[in-house]
Every structure is written in structure tokens, then in C-alpha cells.
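Go through this:
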Amino acid sequence: MAILRGKDIPKAEGKLAILTPGMGAVATTFMAGVISVRKGLSLPIGSLTQMGTIRLGKRTDKRSPKINDFVPLAQLDQIVFGGWDIYSDNAYEAAVKAAVLKPQHLDPIKDELSAIKPMTAVFDHKYVKNIDGPNKKTGTSKMDLAEQLRADIRNFIKNNGCSRAVMVWCASTESYSKPTEIHETLAAFEDALRKSDPNIAPSQIYCYASLMEGVPFANGAPNLCSEIGAMQELAEKQKLPIGGKDFKTGQTLMKTILAPGFKARMIGLSGWFSTNILGNRDGEVLDDPESFKTKEVSKLGVLDDILDPKSFPELYGNLYHKVRINYYPPRGDNKEGWDNIDIFGWMGYPMQIKVDFLCRDSILAAPIVLDLAIFMDLAHRCGMKGIQEWLSFYWKSPIVKKGLTPEHDLFVQKTKLKNTLRWLMHEDLITHLGLDYYEELD
């Protein structure tokens, strides 16, 4: 089926369900923010779909509409929230406990948040060791659990009068795992589900259930999930968009801003030491070495892919890159990312850069959840199936087709995203060559 473009793209009519496995700090901050914006109490800062513009044509044309006015996107008043969690707290209670948002921001939307109650979650203590809760599903097999999730999705869409849905993983980082034979094909994966194979993680069950129900899936954690062969096969079969992985928020966001600058100027790097302290549920989960390893792999891959040390061995061939995450309860959701960067320049002379990013993890992640859900919905309506590389802008570890290298440069990623939107709407792609200037001189 050809990708639908321009006037052929179906309008975003009806309600859009945004379903989040995990209703902790990130999900409830996202929900609260959208509700607050809908009530005129705040602005959707950080959201490209809501605040970003897109240049069309020549600079002299002075056409730069908002993205939200340029492409047929779902609007905030069409969104319905749902999710799963191992704790039974409603979204208001969960947001209060997460302590990301202050009472003056939560109290005016208490009724709306309180109405959002989590469905019982699929959970396996083997994959997340440092937390546990009572609101969990039980079943005869992992396939049975998947069927229960599928029923949840169908019932939610029906009961809330939604015309379509998107699922965005907002739950914890799972223990590190590598793909096995059961992950290679859909047939092998489904057989393993029926046999409750221990190599199948909860995130994979959610992804399977989502795709089986015709719902696009975006993975916001570094878990082994949507990139496995079975899920890519299922996404192609169901003609659904998938994406991941790991929301690009604090420290890695800074790396994808700084590292391309060093490479652009051919400045060398000898070392990059990164450490984080955070005290939210994510920090508690990452205090487990196996969960940390999953996050570490996600964070470490960024610099190699940006700097390309094989092509520039003199500049980046001996880079020492270290990442640490430390659980520190007093800090809560206000994560501190500290970087020491050892660079060298002309004639090899050394220099240093130090970055201390006092960020708010969920505040940075919330608009990513919104944009991914809205763009995934657009991709689905356009018939864009499989891995959505044009959304790499939002991921720490963008998944790509086998044999390809992911693009990590934030600015290249943004150009690719906007050019995809231009292409969808039959507008010229922007190369920034500036040929219009020389044409005017002629």
C-alpha cells in the first residue's frame, strides 16, 4: 500500500487513546500537562507538535506555519488517557507521590487526574528487581497475559468511544537481555509466549498485544522490545508504525547537542565521564546492576555513532567513555547529570569542558510522550509501517533496519523529521543550501 500524502491523509477525527504501560512520574506528568494546557493553565513547552514551526519554500517566501497547522495532527482535546501500573493509585495519587509537580499545578486538575485509574499490569520481578506492587495480572501463560492486555485495549477503546489508539511505554527499565532465537520470527515468539519462555520480558508482551490490536507502539525505555525481528515482522504484517528506544531527555540530550559540534569543528576527544544522581522510581530501579546495564548500553552507544571513530581515528579512536547512575533518594525527580569532557585541539593541546545539568527528568520526558503519540498516530493514518526512523529525534538509541547505523546528531535528526513532514504534504525539502540568494543575484 502506498503512503498517503497531502489531501489523501485521513483527518484526525474522533478520540485518540494514548495508552501508557507505567503510570508513574513520566506518564502522570505527561497527562497532567496535557490536561493543564487544555484548561488554559499552562503552555506545552518542549513539544514540537504544539509549539514548533516549519519553514516552507524559500526564505523569502516567509512561510513558517506551526507544525500543528501544517499537518493533520490529533488535537489535545481529542486525547483520552489510559494505562497500566503495578500500583493501584489513580493518576492524581501517583502524581502526588512522584512529587514532580507542585500542588498548585495538580489541585486545579485533581478531578480529571483522579478519573484515570490504572489497569492491572503485566509484571515479572525477574526483569525489574527493586520494585513490586499488588496491581498485577495472573495467567496460565504469557500468551494468556498478552490476550488479557489485548482485551484491555479493546475494552478501553470501546468504553471511551475512541476511534484509534497509540501505546507509549513509560514504565521502568528492565534488566539487560540479548535477543535469542525466540525473538527472531513472529512464529517463534508466539510459540514462546504459549510456553511462557523466561526470555520474554513484559515490555515485549505489551508490544505484541499492542500491534495485534492494530495499535502503534513506541518504546520509551532501553528495553529489548520493538527492535526484535518478531516485532518488526508483526508491525509490517499489521501495517503499523513502531519506534524506540529510550526517551532522549537529560544527559544524553546534551551529548547529542555537544558531540556533533565537536565533530563539525574536527575537535578531538580523549575522554567523556558522565555521572547522574536521581531519586525517583527510575533511580530505584536503576540501582539494580542488571537494569543499569540496559541503560548503560543505551547511553554508551551515542558517542560512537556520532563521532565515527573508524573514520577519524586520530580524533576519536582512543576516546574513554564512562557512564554512571547513582540512586540518591533526596534528589527525587530532579536529576543531576554531571559531565567532564576532555578535548584537544590544534597541535594536540588539551582543554576541558564541564557540564552540570540540573534537570527535571519527567518534565523533559512528558512532551516527548505527547509528540511521539501524535506523530505515531499521523504515521498510522498515512500508512507508514515499520520502524519510523524520522522520529529518531526523540530517542537515545534509535532503532533502524538491520545493517544500518542509527543517526544520533540531534540537528540532522530534526532536519529529517521536518523534511518527512514536508514530503508528506508535497512541499519541497529544505537543504539549507541558500541557492535562492544566488538566484536573486542573477
Q: What stands out?
A: The mean pLDDT is 93.
